[in-house]
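INFO worker-7 received task bundle
INFO bundle size: 2
INFO processing item 0
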Amino acid sequence: MMNELRTPGVGRTRAVRRHAQRGVTLFSLMFWAIIVGFTALITMRVLPTLNEYFTIQKAVNRIANENNGTVGAIRQAFEKQKEVEYSIQTIGGKDLNVTKENDKVVISFAYDKEVELVKPVYLLIKYEGRSK
């Protein structure tokens, strides 16, 4: 868009081009910083619980494939595995449900995990799994 500007005291005019400003406003920068920060907070708080779940799942699968003993022996094997795997803290051997399906030992588990996001706000995650 061309506008004519007149300088005071001079009879000449010159053409000036006006460009619309482009870029990130402070408001949009703050908005995206808050979104990225909150997503990072949730990720940092949830990843350890996911790691624990996958560790429990791996331990249960290993015990179910190796152990065809009694329920007590299976629970004791899980407790030994829990001592080795430092990330298992939420459940113990007593929390396992041990059954047999088609002459195969099936170990299942379920538990809830509360993750504190910001002091009065918690995220509740319900985990459940079974041996393969």
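INFO item 0 finished
INFO processing item 1
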Amino acid sequence: MSIKQVRVSNQAKDQLIRLKTKTGITQWNVLCRWALCVSLAEPTSPTPIEIPADSNVEMSWLTFGGEHHELYLALVKHRCLRDGHDLSPETLSRQFRLHLHRGISYLAAPHKLRSIQDLVKLTLIARSITVASPESARHPGWGA
């Protein structure tokens, strides 16, 4: 396993606190999973900035990912390869942190989320953008 601990910046902690209030989602790890996925869905790479690990919000990778921790790691690895990065532990950890913090910032943007319903809508909109048209989605052999 390449990522052992997840620790967010103080700015991200403050943003997560606001998100907890707006969405009613009380667990840090659940909000962080949403944030990671929102960032990974963006077509551009996150800006390579230094992100301090200066808050007291910390969790293990297994707590972050829960029973699907391997899936989240596979998503980060896939994105690293897509963006032309190697899969060294340092790169995976750095790209994970960049995506996590970008996702948190994205979700915490003013007027982005006012409720958990807005979070679900955001997911449905992102999904509708990435889903192929019915004609291109047909798999050979699955019928006409």
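INFO item 1 finished
INFO post-check item 1: The mean pLDDT is 86.
INFO post-check item 1: The longest helix spans residues 89-108.
INFO worker-7 idle
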